[in-house]
Every structure is written in C-alpha cells, then in structure tokens.
UniProtKB/TrEMBL annotation:
Annotated protein name in UniProt: FAS1 domain-containing protein
Annotated segments matching region Disordered: 334-385
Alphabetical keyword list: Cell membrane, Glycoprotein, GPI-anchor, Lipoprotein, Membrane, Proteoglycan, Signal
Membrane topology value: Lipid-anchor; GPI-anchor
Lineage start: Eukaryota, Viridiplantae, Streptophyta, Embryophyta, Tracheophyta
Length: 407
C-alpha cells in the first residue's frame, strides 16, 4: 500500500517535471531542417529567436539556404537583417490549411517588423493571396502589389502557438532593406524627447558627465528606463536638492549597461546593476513580473514599464510611469512614495540568486521560456494528441498507464 502511494507520488512528480518544459523554441524547431540552417543562424544573430519564443499565435516564413545567400549577397548590416527577417514573422497563426482557405482569397497580416515601430505607415504588413492553381503568394504591402514569394511547404505546426512555413524567396521591401543606422549614430535623447521623456532627456543633456556614461555604453549594450514627463517634472524639486555627485548617480541609475529586450526582462527577474553601480554604491534595483507587467523596485518605491521607445539590439529604451528612487539617495519614511511596505518584504529573498543575473550577458539562448504566457490548461489538452514530440503529452500518457496498472 505504502509502496503504491510512493510510486504514484513519483509518477506525479515526473509529470510535474515535464509540465514545466512547454513553450516552443524556434532554434530547436528549425534545427531539424538543415536546409533552413542559415535562416536559423540569423534568427539567433539578430536576437529575434527569443522574441519569437516569447510570442504565441505567430507564423514564421522561413527561407532556405539558397534564398538566404541571395539575401546576404547584398551585404546588409545585422540591423538591416533584423528588419528584413522580422518582416518574415507574422503576428497571426497560419497553418498550411488556413493559408489555402483565406476568406475572400486575400488577407493582410501584421508582422514583427511593424510591431517594432521602425516601419512607417502601412509598411510592415504582408499581403497573403490565394493564387490560381492552389498557389499561395506573399508580398510586403509596400512592394507595389507583387506577390512573387510562393508557399513551398509547411515545416512545423504547433497549433495555435507557432507555424513555420517555407516560402520560395525573401519578401522584398524597400523599407525593411533600408540601411539601418549603427548604434553609435543613435540619438537616444532625441528618441526620448520625441516620445514623452523630454524632461528626463533635457536633464541628462544638462549633466554631461552622466550623459557621457550613457554614450559610452551605446555600442556595447544599453537599456534605459526613462520616467515619463509628468512624473519627472513633479520630481525635479527633489532632484535639485541632491549634491552634484548625487545628481550624476541618480541620472545614471536609469541606465543598465546591457541590452535587455522586454522578453529578456520578463524571464530574467532579479537584481540589476545600473550605470551608477560602483563598488560599495550599489544603486541597483529589482526587476519583477507583475502579471503581464514588468516592474522595477527599490526599497523606496516600485515603478512599472509602460512603453517601448526602442528595442533594437544593442539598445533598448522603455518608459516608466514613475520616478524610481535609489535607496542610496532617498529615505523610505518621509517620501510620499506609494506602498513602500510590501516592497520591502518581497525584496529580500531575491538578492543572492539575482546577483549573477545582473552580470548575465544579453545572450538570447540563456532566456528561459518558463515565463512565457501560459494559456488555459484546456489548450494544452487540445494539443496533447497533436505533438508527441512534446515530452509532456508522453509523460501524461505514461502516468495514466502506470496508475491504471497499479490500481
Ligand atoms: C502552446 O503553448 C502553451 C503555453 O506555452 C503550451 O502549454 C502548449 O503545450 C503549446 N502547444 C503546442 C502544440 O506546443
Ligand atoms: C532553444 O534550443 C537551442 C538549441 O537546442 C538551445 O541552445 C537554447 O538554449 C534553447 N532556448 C531556450 C530558451 O530553451
Ligand atoms: C469578404 O468580401 C465581402 C464582400 O466583398 C465583404 O463584405 C467581407 O467583409 C469580406 N471579408 C473579409 C474577411 O475581408
Ligand atoms: C493583396 O495584393 C493583391 C495584388 O496586389 C490585391 O489585389 C489585394 O487586394 C491585396 N490584399 C489586401 C488584403 O490588401
Ligand atoms: C539629438 O536630439 C536632440 C533633441 O531632438 C537634439 O537637440 C540634438 O541636437 C540631437 N543630437 C544630435 C547629435 O543629432
Ligand atoms: C530639500 O532639502 C531641504 C533641506 O534638507 C529640505 O528641508 C526640503 O524639504 C528638501 N526639498 C525637497 C523637495 O525634498
């Protein structure tokens, strides 16, 4: 009797172990197809792979090695390649069946290129049209109506998370192929000024030492969390009260010396060093998911990431709703900061684990898929019969079989 219970427990834990390993991995999916290896390699180089892994209900239009060589023969920079390839990721699920049965024979699909905000106007959409003779044509919408990339075959389908289909050649798009400026030509204060962080950008420009620290990090990797104008304006009296070195550290506190995409932030929760971190002066904060949101917290207050102004490896700029206050410069008690009490409680246990995280390289391969949105269990049940490559469904079947044998 006891032995049986122990066995059931063992099987149950086995089931739990498999359950944690769901979610797709585009690198692994494509690795089974040597003819798509160059495409796969470039998804990694451009850091699109973790972005693809963090999304569901998407379609990747894959190119074989020959189509990739003709694309690469124009020697595009890696930033341009990222734009071109992100035009090949549709933000909707198109299995082979749905592609051949599009309502009214034609549809426009938004792409990851359009979602980055780099694509102006209607560019960044892909036109999918059912052509005569059962062919399916694809074209970038800014391409004068040409639909000469054709559906070749379905490569992988995990309904309705990700569909990978091969198309005959790269979607030509003047906008996506336009040379993208390298990071050193980026005007980060210009981008912030134009999108709601003007007060912070102006303050940074007025403090050349802090500004220099940001500029020094633009090429090697930089993530900026800029407080929106209303919040920063209201904070200025407190800022003006700081000493000169306090002001410099405070401004540098909103930059992190590594590139962090939003999906990396979601999966790399923990302590993060900043540009102001210097030996004993920690000037760090904790990144923590709060449902769909990502929050940053110190012992003084908690702020939320509101928007993305730029996410183009190696630089990311996000807006935050309030001014995050470093504990090195502000005291918890007299500030009117919202809800400091629960923050303190949650802060402590994270520390040791996250120390290494703050140093972690921006390598997308280290991203954990465990934090990706987890739809209802029902979806997993629906899929259980489809994917036997998925260890989970095998484990479920095995568990049931063994439980029956035991009873
Ligand atoms: C789709 O994604 C969800 C959540 O990551 C997962 O539970 C499910 O097993 C996936 N479905 C397939 C077919 O891979
Ligand atoms: C995806 O698969 C590749 C190749 O198997 C592996 O190196 C990488 O760590 C995986 N990524 C994730 C997020 O699991
Ligand atoms: C299909 O065409 C009909 C008639 O032109 C139109 O009313 C309908 O909105 C179209 N459906 C879609 C999904 O475009
Ligand atoms: C897609 O392109 C074709 C050919 O230019 C055009 O006839 C069709 O209306 C376009 N579809 C959509 C949804 O814009
Ligand atoms: C960056 O943008 C700001 C604000 O738009 C502008 O004042 C500044 O001249 C720009 N700097 C460069 C180097 O273009
Ligand atoms: C500035 O510092 C003075 C002296 O420490 C203090 O009385 C005052 O309240 C501070 N002002 C702000 C806005 O923090």
């Amino acid at each position: 009797m006891q032995q049986r219970q122990r066995l059931v427990l063992l099987i149950f834990s086995l089931f739990l172990v498999f359950q944690t390993s769901n979610g797709h991995n585009i690198t692994r999916l494509l690795a089974k197809h040597p003819s798509l290896s160059t495409f796969n390699h470039y998804l990694t180089l451009t850091h699109l792979a973790p972005e693809i892994n963090s999304r569901t209900t998407i379609t990747v239009l894959a190119l074989d090695n020959a189509a990739m060589s003709s694309l690469l023969s124009k020697s595009p920079s890696i930033y341009t390649m990222k734009n071109i390839l992100s035009l090949h990721v549709l933000l909707d699920y198109f299995g082979a069946k749905k592609l051949h049965q599009i309502t009214n024979g034609t549809a426009l699909a938004a792409t990851m290129f359009q979602a980055t905000g780099v694509a102006p106007g209607a560019s960044g959409f892909v036109n999918i049209t059912d052509l005569k003779g059962g062919k399916v044509g694809f074209g970038a919408e800014d391409n004068g109506g040409s639909l000469d990339s054709l559906f070749v075959k379905s490569v992988e389908e995990l309904p309705y998370n990700i569909s990978v289909i091969q198309i005959s050649k790269a979607l030509p798009s003047a906008v996506a192929e336009a040379p993208t400026p390298g990071p050193s030509e980026l005007n980060i204060t210009g981008i912030m000024s134009a999108h709601g962080c003007k007060v912070f950008a102006d303050t940074l420009l007025a403090h050349p030492e802090a500004m220099g620290t940001y500029e020094d990090n633009v090429n090697g990797g930089l993530t900026v969390f800029c407080p929106l104008d209303d919040a920063f304006k209201a904070f200025l009296p407190k800022f003006k009260n700081l000493t000169a070195s306090g002001k410099e550290s405070f401004l540098e506190f909103f930059g992190v010396p590594v590139y962090q995409s939003l999906s990396m932030l979601k999966s790399n929760n923990g302590l993060m060093n900043t540009l102001a971190t210097d030996g004993a002066s920690k000037f760090d904060f904790t990144v923590q998911n709060d449902g769909e949101d990502v929050t940053l917290k110190t012992k003084i207050n908690t702020v939320k990431i509101i928007g993305t102004l730029l996410d183009e490896q190696p630089v990311a700029i996000y807006t935050i709703d309030k001014v995050l206050m470093p504990r090195e410069l502000f005291k918890a008690a007299p500030t009117p900061a919202p809800a400091p009490a629960p923050v303190e409680a949650a802060d402590a246990p994270k520390a040791s684990k996250s120390k290494s995280k703050s140093k972690s390289s921006p390598d997308p391969a280290s991203d954990s898929p465990a934090d990706s949105p987890n739809p209802a269990d029902q979806a997993a049940d629906d899929n259980a019969g489809v994917s036997f490559k998925d260890g989970r469904s095998v484990a479920v079947g095995l568990s049931f079989l063994l439980v029956f044998l035991l009873l």
